[in-house]
Amino acid sequence: MNRERRIFPDPEAACEALAQDFITTVERALEKAGRFTVALAGGSTPARFYRLLARSPYRERLAWEKLHVFFGDERFVPPDHPDSNYRMAREALLDHVPIPAANVHPMPTLGLTLPAAARRYETHLLECFAGSPQLDWVLLGLGEDGHTASLFPGFEPPPEAWVAAVASAPKPPPRRLTLTYRTFNHARQAVFLATGAGKAGIVARVFTRPELNLPAQRIAPRERLSWYLDEAASAGLVT
Ligand SMILES: O=C(O)[C@H](O)[C@@H](O)[C@H](O)[C@H](O)COP(=O)(O)O
């Protein structure tokens, strides 16, 4: 697995570079494959990146009909709830690009118990990937305790699970669905996007304290692991 860490002056520069690299990755992959599958991150950081992809010149360069969008995690709230990652992705990106509705795969958060919703999404993933969910590209955020997606310290999903239910996440809201280490580490490429001074402490710990075995440190995709940081978030690193 190749690793790379790129540091940019500010969040805008980091997201511009990520948008350009993402499009290059998609274009290269679609020379050989008929679709490109991604899992989007939640939280507040990625919205800037999603809004960029929804605008020129990036919007026109993506073959939206060949993109399939899944979610790395979801808060167990209705899809129109202010805390919904799906709602955030719709407002920042999906409602503004010509991606077919059938290509957007939100995690189910209505009409099911939390465990049943996890099982339903896992079944959907297995159907979409003919039994072995291998995403081409996953975007991940970084929480200040080292969590990523909804994989929090001290939470161990069943090793065979592709999707897990989280009943008491320390970051509200407490009930969540999340892809697991198995799914993220089966992916071809994973990208962390972390910006802002508030992340400097955890970014330093992730890169200098491997013994902590934090959730973000356990992400090891098949081909490539990339970090897109701004100077504020990487202030604790000796570069
Ligand atoms: O649903 C979520 O909350 C996210 O998946 C979560 O893992 C997020 O990426 C980090 O907590 C960073 O959040 P911010 O980007 O808001 O700092």
Automatic annotation (TrEMBL):
Name recorded for this polypeptide: 6-phosphogluconolactonase
Gene Ontology MF terms in the entry: 6-phosphogluconolactonase activity
Catalysed reactions, as listed in the record: 6-phospho-D-glucono-1,5-lactone + H2O = 6-phospho-D-gluconate + H(+)
Biological pathway: Carbohydrate degradation; pentose phosphate pathway; D-ribulose 5-phosphate from D-glucose 6-phosphate (oxidative stage): step 2/3
Enzyme class: hydrolase
Domain Glucosamine/galactosamine-6-phosphate isomerase: residue ranges: 9-227
Source species of the chain: Methylomarinovum tepidoasis
EC number assigned by the record: 3.1.1.31
Database matches in Pfam families: Glucosamine_iso
Family the UniProt entry places it in: Belongs to the glucosamine/galactosamine-6-phosphate isomerase family. 6-phosphogluconolactonase subfamily.
Listed GO biological process terms: carbohydrate metabolic process; pentose-phosphate shunt
Keywords (A to Z) from UniProt: Hydrolase
Function: Hydrolysis of 6-phosphogluconolactone to 6-phosphogluconate.
Family matches, as CDD domains: 6PGL
Gene designation per UniProt: pgl
InterPro entries tied to this protein: 6-phosphogluconolactonase_DevB, 6PGL, Glc/Gal-6P_isomerase, NagB/RpiA_transferase-like
